[in-house]
């Protein structure tokens, strides 16, 4: 019998720390529901002290999720721990994850604390968290660059204080696999009470080694891995959930542990996270990239047709790659629509919300006869985006694009409820539309990214557009979907502008500690 390997998903917390990836409460609940369906063991839902919105989101996840443990992050300070405890209170099983940095560079320059002060604070934080729950996780931040003797002292003390999980983060993605594996081995051997806690790892991908480092740690006794869907996360991201889970599952001959995950939920989860955050998945990404199971060369195709295992080490269907299933169409009624949403874990809160989303569905079904799950997710994301965030609203857009002519766009926006019109020419129809929007809205930010992806296959697919804008150091992502990609682009641009007008003050967990 293999040991259980605990999968701790931090898409909603560390993943959300990617610039522009912030999610609304309802979006977090939708992602949490698919993670629960995937049978993820622990869902880190956010950093409750960061803002009232973050607190509400963690609380909503704690209410919605029954099967997975719901975790809230807290620095080793009173207000963070108390806020995290309050947010996870409704959870059937709740965890507090508290942390403080232990590397010389962080202690001296960020915390301005001595080793003894950090040790004392770590123990205090674990004891405070234990007043609220028996499930307490402690992380020595930047463990990958901490001194081994000090790390051992801290871990022994926090386990003694009641931490049931000790998580070893390679916060800046600095370690190499053999080194990180050896670190886990030494810690397990040298910390006298190491058998009283689960050893966890949390690797960042700055050198592209997050998954390799995590797997090396598992081979050396780690029994919890922290990861994110699609490897989402700050800078180069976190270890990717799908790669870790499938490596352990595929190489059962090497690993003496396994997860309880339903891997067929991997691709749907990947698509949902990409749709909600607007971070597209590269086509050659392992497991969830569009080409991950596509065989281009004739020799490969021949081999796969004769015997699949000649070139495939996993089955596409085991990770949820089923051909897009038509789920609904033009003639589907409200009940069919409602029950498909329910199957996807989407519960609309009121009859009014159901009616307006159903209207959108009917409009889409008129343009696109076959409606897939991905279309429904995009529809709900869009309805969510517009809620309470409509300083600027697209009323109409007309574009003229013709060979030999300069593209031109006429736009009407509702600005705080009053309509305003403008027209502009541009190098293409999207450029013209953005310029027309700018002249109504006033120039609001610098365009950092513009990307278009098809949600399903076929030329009648909806295009999903992401626009990233920066203003005054703040980065926001806007999203829009439509069968017309110029309209999708305008929606995405307006969504990003709306985010820029709403102040969003949030504390970053690793920015510093107010001790
Ligand atoms: O990367 C890191 O060190 C973290 C901690 C808060 C666990 O995200
Ligand atoms: Zn991290």
Per-chain topology:
Layout (H helix, E strand, L loop, with lengths): L2 E2 L1 E4 L15 H13 L4 E5 L5 H13 L4 E7 L2 H11 L5 E8 L2 H8 L3 H16 L5 E6 L6 H14 L3 E6 L6 H14 L7 E6 L6 H10 L4 E4 L13 H10 L6 E2 L7 H12 L20 H9 L21 E2 L4 H10 L7 H17 L2 E2 L1 H14 L5 E9 L7 E8 L2 E8 L3 H13 L4 E9 L8 E9 L2 E9 L2 H17 L14
Short structural summary:
The protein is an alpha/beta fold and 515 residues long.
Structure description:
There is one protein chain. This protein is α/β, with parallel strands linked by helices and 515 residues long. It has four domains: 275 residues, TIM Barrel (Alpha-Beta Barrel), CATH 3.20.20.70; 30 residues, no CATH class; 52 residues; 114 residues, Double Stranded RNA Binding Domain, CATH 3.30.160. Helix content is 39%, strand content 21%. The strands form five sheets. It has an eight-stranded parallel barrel with strand order 2-3-4-5-6-7-8-9, surrounded by nine helices. A three-stranded antiparallel β-sheet has the order 13-14-15. Helix 1 runs antiparallel to helix 10 and helix 15 packs parallel to helix 16. The chain is globular and about 75 Å long. It binds 3-methyl-2-oxobutanoic acid (KIV) and zinc ion. Zinc ion (ZN) binds next to loops.
């Amino acid at each position: 019998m293999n040991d259980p390997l605990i999968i701790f998903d931090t898409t909603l917390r560390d993943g959300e720390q990617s610039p522009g990836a912030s999610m609304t409460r309802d979006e977090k609940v939708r992602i949490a529901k698919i993670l629960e369906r995937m049978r993820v063991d622990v869902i880190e839902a956010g950093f409750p002290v960061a803002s009232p919105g973050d607190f509400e989101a963690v609380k909503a996840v704690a209410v919605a999720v029954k099967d997975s443990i719901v975790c809230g992050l807290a620095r080793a300070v009173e207000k963070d721990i108390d806020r995290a405890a309050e947010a996870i209170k409704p959870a059937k099983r709740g965890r507090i994850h508290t942390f403080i940095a232990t590397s010389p560079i962080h202690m001296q320059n960020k915390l301005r604390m001595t080793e003894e002060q950090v040790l004392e604070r770590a123990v205090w934080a674990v004891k405070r968290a234990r007043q609220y729950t028996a499930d307490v996780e402690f992380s020595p931040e930047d463990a990958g660059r901490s001194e081994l003797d000090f790390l051992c002292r801290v871990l022994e003390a926090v386990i003694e204080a009641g931490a049931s999980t000790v998580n070893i983060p390679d916060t800046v993605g600095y370690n190499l696999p053999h080194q990180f594996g050896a670190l886990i081995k030494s810690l397990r051997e040298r910390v006298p009470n190491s058998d009283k806690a689960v050893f966890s790892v949390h690797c960042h991908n700055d050198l592209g080694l997050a998954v390799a480092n995590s797997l090396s740690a598992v081979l050396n006794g780690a029994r919890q891995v922290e990861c994110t869907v699609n490897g989402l996360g700050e800078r180069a991201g976190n270890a990717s959930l799908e790669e870790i889970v499938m490596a352990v599952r595929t190489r059962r001959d090497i690993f003496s542990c396994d997860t309880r995950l339903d891997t067929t939920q991997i691709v749907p989860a990947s698509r949902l996270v990409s749709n909600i955050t607007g971070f597209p998945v590269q086509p050659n990404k392992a497991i969830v990239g569009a080409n991950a199971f596509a065989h281009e060369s004739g020799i490969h195709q021949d081999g796969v047709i004769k015997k699949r295992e000649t070139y495939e080490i996993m089955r596409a269907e085991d990770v949820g790659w089923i051909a897009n299933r038509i789920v609904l169409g033009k003639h589907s009624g409200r009940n069919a629509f409602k029950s498909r949403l329910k199957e996807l874990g989407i519960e609309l809160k009121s009859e009014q919300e159901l009616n307006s989303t159903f209207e959108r569905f009917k409009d889409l079904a008129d343009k696109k006869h076959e409606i897939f799950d991905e279309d429904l997710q995009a529809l709900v994301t869009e309805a969510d985006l517009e809620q309470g965030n409509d300083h600027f609203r697209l009323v109409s857009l007309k574009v003229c694009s013709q060979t030999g002519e300069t593209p031109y766009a006429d736009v009407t926006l509702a600005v705080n409820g009053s309509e305003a019109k403008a027209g502009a020419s541009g190098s293409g129809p999207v450029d013209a539309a953005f310029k027309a929007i700018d002249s109504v809205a006033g120039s609001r930010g610098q365009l950092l990214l513009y990307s278009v992806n098809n949600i399903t296959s076929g030329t009648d697919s909806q295009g999903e557009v992401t626009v990233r804008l920066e203003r005054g150091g703040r980065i926001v992502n806007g999203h829009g979907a439509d069968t017309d990609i110029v309209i999708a682009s305008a929606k995405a641009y307006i969504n990003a502008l709306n985010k820029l007008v709403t102040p969003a003050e949030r504390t970053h967990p690793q920015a510093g500690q107010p001790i």
